Records
---
Amino acid sequence: MDGVRCMQMRGGTSKGLYFVATDLPADPAERDALLLSIMGSGDPRQIDGLGGAVPLTSKVAIVSPSDDHAFDVDYLFLQLGVGEATVSDRQTCGNLLAGVGPFAVERALTAAGDAETEVRIRAVNTGAAATVRFATPGGRVAYGGDTAIAGVPGTAGRVDVAFADTVGSSTGALLPTGNLVDEIDGVPVTCVDNGMPVVVAEAASFGLTGHEPYEALRADDALQARIDALRRQAGELMGLGDVRDSSVPKTTLVAPPAEGDDGVMLQTRTFIPVVPHSAIGILGAVSVATAVLLPGAVGHHLAAGWPRGPVDVTIGHPSGRMLVALDVGLGGEQPEVRRSAVVRTARKLADGVAFPR
């Protein structure tokens, strides 16, 4: 079979394949079958494809010029299964989003500025809007730079990602169950959706400190089974239906910083959907920080002493930390998310033709 033009990029702490929409079949079923073949999904090693055998590297971004004049490009995110041959479009990915602007310039879907470029992106999965800004000296994307992010070795070019219209991205509401706190299997949780549906619980509710290394969580089958039972019930409460085969909602356990976590304001351990995350997703981090800011929500006591009004929240995770900028208004009857943004990096890894089986 003829190959398909694609680019492999690292966006934030994820890695995926980026395609121009017109290079793929228009029929979603044909498109998904092709992508599963290219990625090697259905085999936990993904040995016969381009996937990296973990969810963080089994991702696809499909980019096209936007028909809405408010945006430059549209971005459709697909999460491909690893051991299971599944494709989900029920959420977006803020990490791959960091690479969408550079990819759009590389494929001439939008023009580059002489020094830097801003690309307005519509996330097709959720309807959310984002603006990414990155350096383009001489009209070419500069992937090198001195910005470091946790979970990625070395440094790369800075990508500023600012979000809009993230509230209720997949569920239609910031608090999709209608409650600040629900109890599931005896565990208090806050179900939140500010760009990503997330079930927030305290690590202590699972007998954890919230500072466990990734390897310990990965080896704890009993913990993962509890997380799965919790998120399935939460999915029903959040209006997502049966999430047995879905990657959302995510589950994040929150805890206070450990001694020596200089600058960290909130420690987290995330599961997608039940496999521990070695870091934390961008929009997941935004949703978790938003939840903790809400008086009465699970983990709100961890925000005692945080500045009122706009705040930069440094979130700890197994690989390091992430900075999230939030402005959440709490004066009205309902919380108002005014702004959310993160700093990421992205890098082009390979550009060429991918071949399905």
Note: The first strand starts at residue 4 and ends at 11.
---
Amino acid sequence: MDTQNPSAPTRARSRTADKNHPHAGGLVHENTRHTTRFTVIGNHLAQHPELSLVARGLALYLQSLPAGARADIRTLAARFPEGTTRIAAALRELETHGYLRRERVRIPGGRVITRTTSCNQPGRRDAEPDRTRKPARRPTPDQPRRRLPPVPQPGHPAPQLLRIATEVLVTLRRHDPRLLLSATDAEHLAPGVAAWLEREVTPTAVRHALTADLPQEDLRRPAALLAHRLTDRLPPPPPYLAPARPPEIRHPFRNCDGCDRVFRAPAPGRCRDCRGDIREAA
């Protein structure tokens, strides 16, 4: 009989899954080195404990954009399916945690725009403050809120007209979420809308005039913008139309009770001649 080699294995041993993949049940990375078109993002953003996924994804997208690219709410909402409400909320998250700054600046020519700054390392800017920038003015509790510009007033403020005007104002946010007004702002603007309605402008036409060609940047004072438009775009009064003459009253034909002559009268009786003969006889 042939003798067996006790040192030779009876069959080939396979490596266990645990030895091949120490973390077989978890994440496995397959990385390729980028040499062009890439963006470096810190783990402080990717693994932030408080930011939503929408905010983190938006921060990543903003970091990948070139300088000068548009980054307002409407442009971002047109690019992504989340819509203006979720985009605006994500931008506020990034502002709160220092990944975004939005500042109002005046450019040559006098126009005011919103400058958006995407920060890849929050807090670094505060370590060496930019002394060329003026500190932001924050309202104090004793400082009153800036008054809104005056608006046109209707000649005859009917309650029904003011009710329709208020409905027009509170539905503007359906066209643009930035036009969400407080109750105080709506009360201030309602007479201005009523002045338009009094001039025979339909509510739909007023709504279009207030929402057409809105600025792309954020609206810090939407009520002030609406007050300006209500005054600046106020249409002229409608042309005067003289009241129409009342229709001529034509009474039915009657037969005179005295001479049987046919005449027009509101009720049966005598004609004019017969009534005159009676007066003369008396």
Note: Residues 1-10, 12-19, 126-143 have pLDDT under 50 and may be disordered.
---
Amino acid sequence: MSLATDLDVGGSSAAEAGRPLVGKGRWISGWDPENASQWEEFGRRTARRNLALSVYAEFLGFGVFAMWSIVVPLLPKYGYVGAAAISDSQQFWLISIPTLVGATLRIPYSFMVTRLGGRNWTIVSALLLLLPTAGLAVAVGQRAGFPTLLAMAALAGLGGGNFASSMTNISFFYRHAEKGKALGINAAGGNLGTAAVQFAAPVLVTVGAGFSTSGPNLPVVGWVFVPLVLAAAIGAWLRMDNLTGARSEVATYVAAARARHTWILAFIYFGTFGSFIGFAGVFPKLMNDAFPGRGTYVLLGAGMTLAFLGAFVGSMSRPLGGIVADRVGGWRVTVAAFTAMALGAAGVAIALQAKSFGWFMVAFLWMFVFTGIGNGSIYRMIPAVFAATADTDTSVSRATAGKIAAGAIGIVGAVGAYGGFVIPQVFALSKSATKGAAHPTGTIVPALWGILACYLLMALVTWAAYGRKRADGVHV
């Protein structure tokens, strides 16, 4: 069924009825999700269709983003030993460089939605994923050196940019009362790409070992994405839509960058999403380093690792953060999430000192759950904060506030993603600084105590900015 049939548009009669008009290139004008009759008649159905395709494309983006987190620990088994070995510090760089690039791309990616349209940019951004996937397969297959591997890992950052553009796009499709749930579902579906890769990749490389002469078949991790990426681009071309009302000028991004709330939200999102993506990237390596051979199993002849559970529970809990924030307020959920994450960091540090694999897993998974909840609540707070600002400032309309919020999503998402680069680097520094007789390879325990202190600070900032009653009326 075409979009024109879905919307039952027909020229001036549709305009008179207040219905959206569909133009060439699947551009919809007159989209107003706050119009109850429009929303109930066809708005919800159209929004859900775009959400479903957005989730799939973002799912692949996060999968590409996370490829190296699984590939890196397996490099020694693929022949990267002796003179060709990748050092511990270089391994952390291969894991973290996709996040650095992805964070940097988030602002331009979110901007492209407002300039080219959500559907059009989803097609382009999906096809760009062919570069890092084929690049990984060729580089690892040829046993390229560290500089080439680092360049291919940097290209995986293209997958990280997809998150900001996808979230910006979906924020325009949904009515205010349902944004938290919709953005939570969109983000969770994308975040699950990390868990899916960490679950499936070890199985694929084990099964593919029969077609490789050098142990695990690491190139297959890249090649398996190619048909999936093409399917995402074709699906977006056929069934997604562009919204004329989502077009924004550079001025809205400038306004978002000047807004104090953008940077407060970015700071606290640095703690939640930065933790999620940073922990997800290093979790397989940390598990292997601290507990060699633990958490790895053979199922039906194929290898698998429990490392995928971290990204999985963090992804699944994200919608919960948005849903609960819709009901009780985002600041309450966010403060609770940071408090719980601090407890989790303490638990991981104690478990490492006690050399308890079981408590290590429990505490780390606890942290992952609350990173997801915090991610969902903060993304729900972004449109709520700017809507509240519009309510107290008569010079700013709701429509303008919505566009500024969309710009803020890109900035907040970018800054938050940088946390995913910082965390692996902090762990690398901690291990390097603590090497000695007691810890031949170093330990991340000092880094965990520092992270715990940051969580408590972020909880305090959240309460101070949004929890107590303020003269500007922003209380979300």
Note: The first strand starts at residue 21 and ends at 23.
